Amino acid sequence: MKRWLWLTLVVLILDQASKWLVLMAIAPHEVIALTPHLHLTLLFNEGAAFGMLAGAAGWQRWFFVALALGMSVFLTLWLLRLQLEERLQAAALALIIGGALGNLIDRLWLGRVIDFIQVYLPFIPLPLFNPWPAFNLADSAISIGVILLLLATWRALPTSPLPQGEGRKE
C-alpha cells in the first residue's frame, strides 16, 4: 500500500533532523536534563539495541547495514502488498522501515548510530535498566511499529469458538 510510504519518509526526516540538531548542539557525553527522568546525552552506538556487539572488531557495521537493507526491502514489499483495510499493519511496517533506514544512514555515513534520548526509570529496581539505554527517534519508531504489528497480528487471529465437543477435557 503505497499511500503509507509518507509515514516512512516523515520518520526518516524527523530522525535525521533530530540527530543533526543534537550533533550541532551537544558535545559527546554532555548531559542536558530536560526533566529529572528525561535527559539528552549524545552517544554513539556501534552495536545494536542495548549496545549489543558494540565491542566487536568492526564487522558488525556491515552486518547491521546488510540486515537493515534486507529487512527494509522485505518489509517494503510486504507493505506494498497489503490491502486497503490493513491500516494498522501498514502503519506498523512504515514506522519500522523509517526507523531502520534512519539508523542505516547513520551506519553508512558515521559507522555508528547516534543515540541521544536518556530515560531514568526509578520505579524499575534493576540497575541494568536504570538509566534505560540511550536511544533515538528511529529506535522509537521501530519499537512502536513492532508493538503495532503484534497488535495487528493479534487482532487478525480467528476468534471462532471451538466446534462442539472439542472443548477441554477434565
From TrEMBL:
Keywords: Aspartyl protease, Cell membrane, Hydrolase, Membrane, Protease, Transmembrane, Transmembrane helix
Gene Ontology cellular-component terms listed: plasma membrane
Active-site residues annotated for this sequence: D115, D139
Transmembrane stretches, start-end: 62-80, 92-114, 134-154
Subcellular location: Cell membrane
Pathway(s) where this gene product acts: Protein modification; lipoprotein biosynthesis (signal peptide cleavage)
GO molecular function: aspartic-type endopeptidase activity
Coiled coil spans: none
Bilayer topology term: Multi-pass membrane protein
Keyword Metal-binding: no
Gene Ontology BP, a term: proteolysis
InterPro entries for this protein: Peptidase_A8
Substrates-to-products reaction catalysed: Release of signal peptides from bacterial membrane prolipoproteins. Hydrolyzes -Xaa-Yaa-Zaa-|-(S,diacylglyceryl)Cys-, in which Xaa is hydrophobic (preferably Leu), and Yaa (Ala or Ser) and Zaa (Gly or Ala) have small, neutral side chains
Pfam families assigned: Peptidase_A8
Function: This protein specifically catalyzes the removal of signal peptides from prolipoproteins.
HAMAP family in UniProt: LspA
Family matches, as PANTHER family: LIPOPROTEIN SIGNAL PEPTIDASE
Name of this protein: Lipoprotein signal peptidase
Protein encoded by which gene: lspA
